[in-house]
Write a structure and sequence with these properties.
By secondary structure, this protein is α/β, with parallel strands linked by helices. The chain has 2 domains: 173 residues, Rossmann fold (3-Layer(aba) Sandwich), CATH 3.40.50.1100; 93 residues, Rossmann fold (3-Layer(aba) Sandwich), CATH 3.40.50.1100. The strands form 2 sheets. The chain has a 6-stranded mixed sheet with strand order 1-2-10-7-8-9, with helices on both faces. A 4-stranded parallel sheet has the order 5-4-3-6, covered by helices on one side. The protein is globular.
């Protein structure tokens, strides 16, 4: 059975003259790390002899796509992944999560997914971004690790912060945590994220607290302030963060510092392979930084 390096460690960092705890889920495993390792932990550990193939869908540089390709490789399953479109440049010059998933044996298909395939007993259909009830299994383990850290370090209370795509990680973390969980929507707006929460959990008392940035950002678009704070994070902490989610996460966190009444634990959710394709784009666009 494939084992992950758990619990992930917690570092203490200083950023912009404030102290934070940093949950290093980016270090869980060299190939299978971050929030996707937590979301898909159930499928990694469970005995599923009838499953022969994973099917999922989403963007062509998705972190979930890459993590599912690793899962399929470990479990010796086939993996079909559906996308709306593959740009000619990416097809001819594979990079980032797209290239790594292909290397792991992913079959990528342009077009709409056939949902009827989910009726097959030997196929596992995973929703976009890993928005699955099965994710609760691994995220409860994460909540338990954080609680053990808090108790063993005699911390009265923690405020947990992480940026969200589908919000699955933040939702189940709040459901199983004694600490308050704060998040900010990165893929859609606040209403989108609340809808995602409700699809998995109708009890709103388990929903995290949503914080919005002062400026509206479009997911996947390049912003100078994203690149600047990403560089500052690396300079001040000597830790590489994700370029897609973490910049908005830290910008939002810093703009709402006054509402946090307890020590803050930020969850590093991995996704660093995606930087291989994002960083060159930032360098080309903002050469002056």
């Amino acid at each position: 059975m494939y084992r992950l390096s758990l619990p992930s460690r917690v570092d203490e960092i200083e950023f912009e003259n404030h102290s934070y705890y940093l949950k290093r889920d980016d270090l869980i495993d060299i190939d299978f790390s971050g929030n996707k390792a937590r979301k898909f932990h159930y499928y990694l550990q469970s005995d599923l002899p009838h499953i022969k193939k994973i099917i999922s869908y989403g963007s062509n540089q998705s972190n979930a796509m890459y993590s599912l390709s690793v899962l399929a490789k470990i479990r010796r399953w086939e993996f079909d992944y559906y996308v709306d479109h593959i740009p000619t440049y990416l097809r001819e010059n594979p990079q980032g999560n797209y290239a790594a998933a292909l290397d792991n044996g992913m079959h990528i298909i342009e077009g709409e997914i056939d949902v009827d395939l989910a009726n097959s007993d030997d196929i596992l259909l995973i929703q976009e971004g890993g928005r699955e009830e099965s994710a609760e299994y691994g995220l409860k383990i994460l909540a338990d690790e954080i609680e053990e850290f808090r108790v063993s370090n005699q911390i009265e209370a923690l405020d947990i912060f992480l940026p969200s795509g589908t919000g699955t990680t933040a939702l189940y973390l709040q459901k199983h945590s004694s600490s308050r969980v704060f998040t900010t929507p990165c893929v859609g707006d606040e209403s989108y994220l609340r809808e995602q929460f409700s699809m998995l959990e109708s009890d709103t008392s388990h929903h995290p607290t949503l914080l919005n940035s002062n400026k509206k950002y479009h997911f996947g678009k390049l912003y100078k302030e994203f690149y600047k704070i990403w560089r500052e994070l690396q300079s001040q902490t000597a830790i590489e963060f994700d370029l897609l989610y973490d910049p908005k996460g830290w910008i939002t966190l810093l703009s709402h510092r006054e509402i946090f009444t307890n020590p803050i634990l930020y969850i590093h959710q991995g996704g660093l392979i995606g930087n291989e394709s994002m960083l060159p784009r930032y360098i080309r666009k903002y050469k002056e930084i």
